[in-house]
Amino acid sequence: MPDVDRRRAWLLTVDGAPQSYVDLDDPAHLEFEYVRRLAHVLDTAAEPGAPIDVVHLGGGALTLPRYVAATRPGSRQEVVEADRGLLALVAERLPLPAGSGVRVHGDDAREWLGRAGDGSADLLVADVFGGSRVPAHLTSVEYAREAERVLRPGGLYAANLADGAPFNFLRSQLATFRAVLGHVALVAEPGVLRGRRFGNVVLLAAREEIDTAELARRTASDVFPARVERGAAVDRLIGDAVPVRDADAVGSPEPPDGSFGIG
Q1: CA torsion 186→188→193→197, rounded to 10°?
Q2: What is the pLDDT at residue 217?
Q3: 222-235 as b/e: b if 16+ CB within 10 A
Q4: Is 34 helix (H, G, I), strand (E, B) or coil?
Q5: Each residue of 19-73: pLDDT tens digit?
Q6: CATH class given for the domain over 2-239
Q7: 153-215-201 Cα angle (round to 5)
Q8: For residues 109 and 82, is the Cβ–Cβ distance under 8 A?
Q9: Domain residue ranges in the chain
C-alpha cells in the first residue's frame, strides 16, 4: 500500500520501495537519480524556459510534471497513471498548484496512448512499472509505433528502464525503438553500464539524430554522475538483439533483492 510522510518534503513508497519524492516548497528539487536524468532530458529538449507539450506515461506523485510546470511555465502536460488509488492519495495530500497546466488521467498507459492525437507531444516520458517491472505491453514494436505517432516531428521519447548485465532486456528495447524511430541513445550510471550492478537506464529514441552534447555535460556534472551513450557504442550493445513484438513481449527482469530499497 502507498505510504507518505507528513513533512513538506514527501517520500511516497509502495510496498516498502521508494516510488516518488516531492518537495512541495521546491518542485525543482529532485531526489532520485533516474528522475534527475529524466529532468536533464527535459531541460535540453527545448530552449531554456520555453513551454513544451509533454505526455507522461506513469505519474507517481507527479514529480516530473511539477518540475516542468515550475521550470517551463505554460507547458501543457498529460499524465496517465493506472493506479487510481494512488491518484486519489496524491490529489488529497499533494494537490497540484492552480494553473499548473497538468491534466491527470486514470487509465492504462498504452490504451490511453492509442487514443491520443497524432503529433500531439514534443516529448513522451514513459516511467511505468507494475510492481518493480516494466509491463510487457509497453515494450513492443506495436507500442513504439503508437509512441512515434503521438510525437511531433523533432519529438523525443524517453523511458525509464531497469536492467543489469547481460542486459538482455535493455538490448531488446534499444533494438525495438531503433527499428521504429531510427535513432536511440541511453543515459546511465557508469557502474550499471559496466555490469557491476542492476539499475535504472534512461532510453532515448527519436526520428532524427539525437543531439546529446548538452545532455552529456549535465549528466556528467550531476551530483549523481551518469554517462550518455549513442552511435557505435549503442550499436555494439544492441549486437544481435532483435525487435520485440506483442506476441513475444515480456516485462523487464525482476530486480535483485535490495536493488531499489530505502537505505
Answers
A1: -140
A2: 98
A3: beeebbbbbeeebe
A4: helix
A5: 789 998 899 999 999 999 999 999 999 999 999 999 999 999 999 999 999 999 9
A6: alpha beta
A7: 90
A8: yes
A9: 2-239
